[in-house]
TrEMBL record:
It comes from the Eukaryota. CDD domains: EF-G, mtEFG1_II_like. Signal peptide: none annotated. This is Putative elongation factor g. Belongs to the TRAFAC class translation factor GTPase superfamily. Classic translation factor GTPase family. EF-G/EF-2 subfamily. InterPro entries: EFTu-like_2, G_TR_CS, P-loop_NTPase, Small_GTP-bd, T_Tr_GTP-bd_dom, Transl_B-barrel_sf. Pfam families: GTP_EFTU, GTP_EFTU_D2. The lineage of its organism: Eukaryota, Metazoa, Ecdysozoa, Arthropoda, Chelicerata. Gene3D superfamilies: P-loop containing nucleotide triphosphate hydrolases (3.40.50.300), Translation factors (2.40.30.10). GO terms for molecular function: GTP binding; GTPase activity; translation elongation factor activity.
Length: 491
């Protein structure tokens, strides 16, 4: 279905490891009708979460590579990318945030703001990504959403305020109080699919009014229209509060905070409503390409977000993946349209490329699509390119999207065959996978008169995964790891 740009959202879900991102994404897929049955992380039901499509992800219960899918909530199509939380896989988060228009920051109600939360928030700031926060795991012992709110303000220096209050915590968590509309929200049914609106509990009405006033005060500090009403001591309507939150959120001047328990199926539907209400559509984010022909200093050209073919097609390849049918190239469309069979040009190499197949991803599954427009995230088959390459529809158009930031590597590891005669077989098994990651092997060294390949990255966990993926021949060729060597970079 060809959606209007106002009815589209491109969002990422990011957090510190074990904050419940993938569990939350599984609920988003279920409540939007994308999947018929929910499964748990770590494959407790022998299936595993849909977005953790790799076997290693299901075994360890962690997200290793960003997974993409599209869901519908009401009239709105939402492209969702579930990103890794472990610091070792921070480049995957970087790739995702570069092409997204908004994000959901998931925080644990017990752990609060943690180390990787700080890293993710720096990445969001780098790409000016508006964000809403979701305090997860209210059912856990020791959960304290007010402490997490305090950390958002003190550690991240966010102008943040609650949009909801919890009705009970830990084992007594029943639902949330909607501060904007002054109502209680309960989640009934076997899987929390039935949303029931009711009067707020009598013993929470005083706190509700206090927190609602605090919410309006924080938004008024960030939004001019609401600020004027606040100074004139006028009471804004519910619609005016929502509009003020949206304006301030788009400018990253205010950070709405919602809460719930994804595992217990509470608070997810209001989060979907908030994504539609407060995060931008592609036309509300200005993206630029660099015109490398203009002068010695590249000139920035604003992209036109209209979803038609009135402007030349411009797309960014933000991720490469070795799929079952060859290299899969994830692209974000920034301008114009792209159809199956079209011819495009890689502005870095100048090469002409035909697009044999255009697909939309749902975790590891693919759905063929006939065309894609500005704002879409899709994938191409059989296209030879590198991460960060720009594709255009007109030969000679020297435009390129701003590159993805790759943090400096902090660790180096190497792999070598135990017998020198297996060197060629080991390296040949690796070659097709080299373009996939920015820190994958780049140099050869000599150790004990045998060849070895050195790879750099953000941590042992990421390098172990990447190098096992890059060396499929290692299942038959005896090999060994060299000791990790720490470099001078920083995470």
């Amino acid at each position: 279905e060809h959606k209007d740009v106002e009815d589209m959202r491109n969002i990422g879900i990011s957090a510190h490891i074990d904050s419940g991102k993938t569990t939350l994404t599984e609920r988003l897929l279920f409540y939007t009708g994308r999947i018929d049955q929910m499964h748990e992380v770590k494959g407790k039901d022998l299936v595993g979460a849909v977005m953790d499509s790799m076997e290693l992800e299901r075994q360890r219960g962690i997200t290793i590579q960003s997974a993409a899918t599209q869901v519908s909530w009401g009239r709105t199509a939402i492209n969702i990318i579930d990103t890794p939380g472990h610091v070792d896989f921070t480049v995957e988060v970087e790739r995702a945030l570069r092409v997204l228009d908004g994000a959901v920051l998931v925080l644990c109600a017990v752990g609060g703001v943690q180390s990787q939360t700080l890293t993710v928030c720096r990445q969001m700031k780098r790409y000016s990504v508006p964000c809403i926060a979701f305090i997860n795991k209210l059912d856990r012992t020791g959960s304290n959403p007010l402490r997490v709110l305090s950390q958002l303000r003190s550690k991240l220096h966010y102008n943040a305020a609650l949009l909801q209050l919890p009705i009970g915590l830990e084992g007594n968590h029943k639902g949330v109080v909607d501060l904007i509309h002054r109502r209680a929200v309960y989640f009934l049914g076997e899987h929390g699919e039935e949303v029931k609106l009711d009067e707020p509990p009598a013993d929470m009405k005083t706190e509700m009014e206090e927190r609602r006033h605090e919410l309006i005060e924080h938004v008024s500090n960030a939004d001019e229209a609401l600020g004027e009403m606040y100074l004139e001591e006028k009471t804004p309507s519910e619609e005016q509060i929502v509009a003020g939150i949206r304006r301030a959120c788009l400018e990253r001047k205010f950070f709405p905070v919602l809460m719930g328990s994804a595992l217990k199926n509470k608070g997810v539907q209001p989060l979907l409503d908030a994504v539609v209400s407060f995060l931008p559509n592609p036309s509300e984010v200005t993206n630029y390409a660099l015109d490398e022909q203009s002068s010695e200093k590249a000139k920035k050209i604003a992209m036109n977000p209209r979803r038609d073919d009135s402007h030349p097609m411009i797309a960014l390849a933000f991720k490469l993946e070795a799929g079952r049918f060859g290299q899969l190239t994830y692209v974000r469309m920034y301008q114009g349209s792209l159809r199956k069979g079209d011819t495009v040009w890689n502005t870095r190499t100048g090469r002409k490329v035909r697009v044999p197949r255009l697909v939309r991803m749902h975790a590891s599954e693919m759905e063929d699509v006939g065309e894609a427009y500005a704002g879409d995230i899709c994938a191409l088959f059989g296209v030879d390119c590198a991460t960060g390459d720009t594709f255009v529809s007109e030969q000679g158009l020297k435009l390129s999207m701003e590159s993805i930031h790759v943090p400096e590597a902090v660790i180096s590891m190497s792999i070598s065959p135990k017998d020198n005669k297996d060197q060629r077989q080991l390296l040949q098994g690796r070659e097709p996978f080299l373009p996939g990651g920015p820190h994958l092997p780049r140099r050869r060294t000599t150790r004990n008169q045998q060849g070895d390949d050195s790879s750099r990255g953000m941590g042992e966990r990421a390098l172990g995964h990447r190098m096992r993926s890059a060396w499929p021949a290692s299942t038959t060729v005896p090999w060994c790891w060299a000791s990790p060597r720490w470099l001078s970079g920083s995470v």
